């Protein structure tokens, strides 16, 4: 059928012709029959029509024009059922493309979309989309195992439909974008109380258990009030100075533990004592140990030879909660709750464990605080014991106990996997890029020596280490999207997007786009340095989005960045990293982007 249309309308088989078409602005005279299908209001054959932008606007792309060997299914708007153009059914005004996923590797979408036929801003309904029926899409997502590969699905869909598309899966609808110009436009319209997509199963859990919500789940004034208080304890410079030594203490202990293992279990390879392991579970323990130390001023003893069962269970509960969140986002979880479906039960019991674990820590912190207050008033001196973020919040007394509990639990949940997973990727990328590793190490050695124990100074002197963290999150964004509902109408890619629409910035396609980054597959921490060798200043605006942006950006950002940098710093000072295979690590999405199989790294004593 495709061949039939190609012959009938003399659509070129040759990719070069598409370029020619672009160069003449896509102006061609189409047969009335086809024109009417594309635009039913067309009156006569000579209505000049911009073929390229028409097809792009309709989500048809250049594929059919270039004659590449892809199959695309173009369906009548609103049906998405059994009929399509190529099967001979009339098209209505707009089209939806349901087979973006079947496009193997299409031409990368190019830059900003041209203006519409008459130079107007296009209507929202004209944004290319992946199928109108959320339920049919859900079925397809399910059948094709797309939930675990949603980041790749986004990348493929941009390739096929261009730099903006709509997606409707079950009850979730969004407009998806990835280009920095659109990101800028979106974030300029986020308003005073930025809103993200709500993680509804989490909200339901809070409601049925009568727990308060923390900043992650709140919106509006309530969110802002909590958030301003939390910022003081975790985002501001004084707070960073407070927790930096505690993060470093945990990073140092992690390296000591690893050194002991290398000595004990390793063997000599090329004159160096070496050990090859999957560091993933050690990094999870590091993540939990570090966040608990910062939040509660408490060490968990996770690097001891017999770490407590409750902490191991907490890590397991976190994994369970995250893994069950993803499917629940798309299913009627209230119904699952009512019928006691195992998926919901697993999700809720994981949360229950997380809450009870946090509760124990908070109770302990509270008791410590009260007893130290008693001692202080007896001694008449200020206590200098590290009581963590909890201690600060209790001391100031601006948040109710319920809100402290809600926010501390969220910080703890947000603070383990989010750092443990990127650290795996960072170690892997440094290990498979020995030259980069050596360059970063040299900077670390110099800065460490010059700082003479001043941690902040040591970190300021290692832009390549900061670049390493950014580069890791560019290629492996642990949160694969950042979402906003703009508070006023915006124009994205020349389409009108009304206020209140859920717009997702897709970080995986952004990080790997050749339009946005030179040589995107290359692990190059230097690309983030403000001035590169040779004096060029790179274009960096709206390109690093891993922590979100603006007032609602990740509240744990300063903890996470410093925690990862300190760990990498300590590791690079003690070990050479290498890998047996430098093949790419396959990734999977289970609410967070993770390695399908944790990478194995060889640690060799320096
Ligand atoms: C590499 C590590 C991390 C990454 C990539 C990351 C990423 C993100 C992103 C993308 C958001 C949404 C931001 C937005 O909407 O603009 C977010 C929010 C949040 N993150 Fe993180 N995060 C990380 C580590 C952490 C840590 C260590 C904590 C806790 C200590 C944490 C706690 C939170 C919380 C509570 C929010 C909600 C903030 C709000 O809505 O006001 N995150 N994070």
From TrEMBL:
Binding-site residues, heme: 554
Primary location: mitochondrion
SUPFAM superfamilies in UniProt: Cytochrome P450 (SSF48264)
UniProt cross-references to InterPro entries, sorted A to Z: CYP11_CYP27_families, Cyt_P450, Cyt_P450_CS, Cyt_P450_E_grp-I, Cyt_P450_sf
Molecular function GO terms recorded: heme binding; iron ion binding; steroid 11-beta-monooxygenase activity
Entry GO CC: mitochondrial inner membrane
Keyword hit for Metal-binding: yes
Keyword DNA repair: no
Entries under Gene3D superfamilies matching the protein: Cytochrome P450
Keywords: Heme, Iron, Membrane, Metal-binding, Mitochondrion, Monooxygenase, Oxidoreductase, Steroidogenesis, Transit peptide
Pfam families: p450
UniProt EC number: 1.14.15.4
Cellular compartment(s): Mitochondrion membrane
GO biological process: C21-steroid hormone biosynthetic process; cellular response to peptide hormone stimulus; cholesterol metabolic process; cortisol metabolic process; glucocorticoid biosynthetic process
Reported cofactor(s): heme
Assigned protein family: Belongs to the cytochrome P450 family.
Protein name in the entry: steroid 11beta-monooxygenase
Phylogenetic classification of the source organism: Eukaryota, Metazoa, Chordata, Craniata, Vertebrata
